[in-house]
Amino acid sequence: MVAAIRQAEWHAQFPEDYRWSYNVMLVLAVIPSGGAEVGEVDRVCRRLAGHVGDDERWFREWRAMGDQVRALAEEARELGDRRAAMGHYRRATSYYFAAERFRFPKDDEALDAYRAMVDCFRLSAELDDRYRVEYVDVPYEDTALPGIFVSAARSPGERTPAVLFMSGFDGNKEHNWFLGVEDLLARGVSVLSLDSPGVGEAVRFRGVSLRHDYEVAGSAAADWLQGRDDVDPERIGVLALSLGGYYSSRSASMDPRFKACAAWGAIWDYHRVWSERIEAAFAKQLPVPGEHLVWSTGTGSTQEALQVLEGFRLADVVPRMKGAFLLVHGEDDQQVPVSDAHLLFEACGSPDKTLRIFTAEEGGAQHCQMDNLSIAVPEINRWLADRLGASATSSATSR
User: Fold this and answer.
1) Sequence-ordered list of residues with C-beta below 8 angstroms from that of 277, at least 6 positions apart, any chain
2) Of 38, 305, 343, 395, whose CB is crowded by the most CB atoms within 10 A?
3) For residue range 171-217, what is the model confidence (pLDDT) as tens digits?
4) What family is reported (predicted)?
5) DSSP assignment of 41-64, as one string?
6) Where in the chain is the domain with CATH 3.40.50.1820?
7) Alpha-carbon torsion 124, 125, 127, 129, what sign?
8) Could you give the dihedral angle defined by the CA atoms of residues 367, 368, 372 and 378, in that order, rounded to the nearest 10 degrees?
9) Successive 10-residue mean pLDDT values, the chain, 399 residues
10) DSSP letters along 72-124, please?
């Protein structure tokens, strides 16, 4: 039922604007994991009808819904209803996330909305007695990357496999939660969800820009995971989506400590992708406004940003990969062509590699399967748990 609603909404909402439609789909996609409510999303979309392309209106309406649902959370908390408050804070997280995505420049209003998103997720985690959520800093060069770690260990002294989970060009560690973190935990895999360079709090509040040599961040996370006494240092994997398909592929190719790598969306030549977008005056399908590129790379112009992207090519990198490799892509991905997935898969040097293309007939054909997460997430996480030798837990990890 929910999957059917998601698909219908994807085709019905803002058909003349891919970016707006795709971002509504991002919100609808997390309904099963408690990240949104279809009625609340529908109310926002009704208010936006007739204003397609007005990103200021988008910001105001989604932020207003975030404020409204956060107020519900605070009321429930005052009543002592922890469970209701947790659910409301979770949904507010998604609505603030949606609001801030299109806001450029990242002025005080934008950053305030982002802080509200971070705060709401933290409060939801504090109220969720099923998990022990740790907010952590992963040492990185002269600063640190903010992360959320949840252990799947069921008893003192147990060491579990762990996955470094990164988002992509425009996601964050909080949104990752709704994309399968709880499913990984149930399969006995601990998770470090990380705001990596150019992403989330790392770029907004710590000035850590996007970079091509992503193994610097990946290896820093591997160091941190290997330093924990509840993680098996020989069973570490990496998962990342969208542009994260580059992050994970490069990190696993350059650091053999990653025994399994899942690229949730293929990236082959990101410089070419953006060159084509710029040449088309940003008329091609984009998940966020074109300004995001200059901002996330910490540059002053699109041409300078393109210079940063010169290194975002995998042809000479992925032949080095030795660990297991899973590549997942949608046949109707409108941001990155499916042909790039075939190029990446063929070039990968892993002796254990799997290519999974989701079709329109089965669902999941859109970018990173946001049109049907319910079939994509179990496949990805089952593969990771299998390659990392995880033993599924019968119940969620408790505090």
Assistant:
1) 284, 286, 290
2) 305
3) 999 999 999 999 999 999 999 999 999 999 999 999 999 999 999 99
4) Belongs to the AB hydrolase superfamily.
5) HHHHHHHHTT-TT-HHHHHHHHHH
6) 131-388
7) positive
8) 160
9) 41 82 95 97 96 96 98 98 98 98 96 98 96 97 98 95 97 98 98 98 98 98 98 98 98 98 98 92 83 97 96 98 98 96 98 97 95 96 97 49
10) HHHHHHHTT-HHHHHHHHHHHHHHHHHHHTT-SS--HHHHHHHHHHHHHHHHH
DSSP category for residue 177: I
Other C-beta atoms lying within 10 Å of the C-beta of residue 288: 19
Q: How far apart are CA 106 and CA 103, in angstroms?
A: 6
Which tens digit of pLDDT belongs to each residue from 128-153? 999 999 999 999 999 999 999 999 99
The Cα–Cα gap between 289 and 301 comes to: 14
CATH 1.20.1440.110 domain locations along the chain: 1-129
Amino acid at 112: D
Structural tokens at position 31: 């309904």
CA distance 370 to 390: 26
The CA distance from 47 to 145, in Å, is 37
| pLDDT recorded at residue 203 | 98
Neighbours of 337 (CB within 10 A): 15
Q: What pLDDT score was predicted for residue 12? A: 55
Sheet with 258-264, edge to edge strand ranges: 133-140, 143-150, 190-194, 160-166, 231-241, 258-264, 324-330, 353-358
Report the C-alpha gap between 377 and 143 in whole angstroms.
Answer: 32
CATH 3.40.50.300 fits 131-388, yes or no: no
